[in-house]
């Protein structure tokens, strides 16, 4: 059980969406907050809201930038004290057909969704272990990190499977350190991730026709509408806090992935060699 009261939490992608929901819940539970994001307007809004409840500092940080990550970590710990709650949450959704991917797109999506999480762990884990004050790491993956379904996208699945694998391995390795690990695998959550991601993503390898671009924009809007019917960010924040307090490895926001997980598990087991040879 990790009591968050008085601890310092570092939340990437903390200005919007799920990160903001986590920040709100932690603020009410008495944690101090370091919110990092690329979106400086949203950071300012989050700070104005949350500083009425707790001590909050905000930083513009691209989670891909390792040098800036280390100096931001130093600045945070100087102002708010040692970070013992780490939320590697910043992420983007880039859905592109496999044959239309470019290295630029791979680097963008894997850089934020997987390497960003690695950078967070690399920056803070040693500090947390050496201080021996326990703590908790929550990595945000996705249902797309548990089973590949049509539309989840090869870029997204590749990164999110990596985040799930890393979290499971950390959970095993850190068992006796007093540092808990959780991996958040949300179903649909009502955020603007589709549009926000599109606005910052590089173009694919293939120049799309105007008509094709229009079809892609319509599809993005359809997915965006579907997400708006998903879980509320504040409810997700409360689920995450409960998982930290109860040291729960997997955090689901719904049963959205039940059938794909069953089908994948069955396929994995069915492919094992027959024990009779
Ligand atoms: N919304 C969903 O339905 C859903 C479902 C499954 C998983 N997720 C995952 O949840 C996490 C949060 O997503 P969300 O829906 O809240 O999205 P969001 O767009 O509302 O918030 C993500 C935040 O991350 C920030 N960000 C993006 N790239 C960054 C970078 N390089 N450095 C620092 N900050 C960066 C954005 O500016 C934004 O504020 C992501 O990892 C996403 O993959 C979301």
Short summary:
The protein has 9 helices and 7 strands; from the N terminus they run βαβαβαβαβαβαααβα. By secondary structure, it is an alpha/beta fold. α4 (103-131) links the parallel β4 (83-88) and β5 (135-140).
Radius of gyration computed on alpha carbons: 19 Å
CATH topology: Rossmann fold
**Overall residue-averaged pLDDT value:** 95
Low-confidence blocks of residues: none
Number of domains: 1
Ligands bound to this protein structure: nicotinamide-adenine-dinucleotide
Assembly status: single chain
CATH level-four homologous superfamily name: NAD(P)-binding Rossmann-like Domain
Write down the CATH class: Alpha Beta
In helices, the fraction of residues equals 40-55%
* Biggest sheet record: 7 strands, parallel
* Count of DSSP strands: 7
Blueprint of the fold:
Layout: E1 8-12, H1 17-28, E2 32-37, H2 40-50, E3 56-60, H3 66-80, E4 83-88, H4 103-131, E5 135-140, H5 154-173, E6 179-185, H6 193-200, H7 210-228, H8 233-246, E7 250-252, H9 258-270
Parallel strand pairs: 1-2, 1-4, 2-3, 4-5, 5-6, 6-7
Helix pairs in contact: 1-8, 3-4, 4-5
Bound molecules: nicotinamide-adenine-dinucleotide.
């Amino acid at each position: 059980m990790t009591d968050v009261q008085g601890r310092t939490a570092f939340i990437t992608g903390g200005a919007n969406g799920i990160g903001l929901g986590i920040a709100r819940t932690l603020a009410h539970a008495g944690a101090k907050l370091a919110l990092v994001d690329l979106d400086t307007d949203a950071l300012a809004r989050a700070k104005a809201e949350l500083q009425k409840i707790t001590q909050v500092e905000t930083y513009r940080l691209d989670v891909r930038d390792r040098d800036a990550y280390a100096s931001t970590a130093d600045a945070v710990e100087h102002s708010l004290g040692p970070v013992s709650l780490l939320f590697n949450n910043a992420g983007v959704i880039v859905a592109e057909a496999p044959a239309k991917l470019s290295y630029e797109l791979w680097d963008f999506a894997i850089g934020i969704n997987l390497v960003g999480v690695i950078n967070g762990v690399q920056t803070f884990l040693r500090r947390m272990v050496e201080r021996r004050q326990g703590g908790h790491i929550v990595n945000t993956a996705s249902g797309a990190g548990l089973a590949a379904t049509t539309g989840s996208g090869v870029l997204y699945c590749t990164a999110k499977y990596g985040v799930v694998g890393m979290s499971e391995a950390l959970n095993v390795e850190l068992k006796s350190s007093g540092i808990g690990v959780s991996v958040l695998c949300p179903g649909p959550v009502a955020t603007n991730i589709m549009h926000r991601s599109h606005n910052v993503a590089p173009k694919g390898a293939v120049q799309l026709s105007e008509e094709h671009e229009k079809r892609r924009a319509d599809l993005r809007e359809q997915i965006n509408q579907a997400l708006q019917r998903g879980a509320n960010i504040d409810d997700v924040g409360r689920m995450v806090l409960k998982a930290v307090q109860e040291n729960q490895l997997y955090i689901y926001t719904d049963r959205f992935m039940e059938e794909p997980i069953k089908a994948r598990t069955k396929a994995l087991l069915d492919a094992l060699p027959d024990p009779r040879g």
